[in-house]
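Page 37, continued from 36.
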């Protein structure tokens, strides 16, 4: 079964793994050492990331290296980008509201 990028990024542990691997290539054991969950659980997360095309696993001797495939994250970025202006408008309105409250409080 082919999964998509959204199935990968929905889980906070997988998002943390993506962030970690975006900084450097690590072995499966090195990735597992960064989390307080079992090695089999990390392996399951890595499997899903691989199925989504976000990472590749490269065998080097007895170890597997996890290599990020950043292009696979483009669909998620493009989807989120369409909502950027909406959120910026709402955040700006909220900031204006907070400034208004602050001004009223000082009076």
């Amino acid at each position: 079964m082919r999964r998509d990028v959204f199935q990968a990024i929905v889980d906070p542990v997988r998002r943390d793994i993506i962030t970690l691997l975006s900084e450097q290539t690590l072995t499966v054991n090195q990735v597992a050492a960064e989390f307080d969950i079992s090695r089999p659980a990390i392996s399951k997360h890595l499997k899903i990331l691989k199925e989504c095309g976000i990472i590749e696993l490269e065998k080097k001797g007895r170890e597997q290296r996890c290599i990020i495939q950043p292009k696979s994250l483009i669909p998620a970025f493009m989807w989120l980008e369409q909502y950027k202006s909406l959120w910026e408008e709402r955040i700006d309105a909220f900031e204006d509201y907070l400034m208004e409250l602050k001004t009223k409080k000082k009076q």
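The longest strand covers residues 55-60. Flag for discussion at group meeting. Strands lie at 26-27, 55-60, 63-68.
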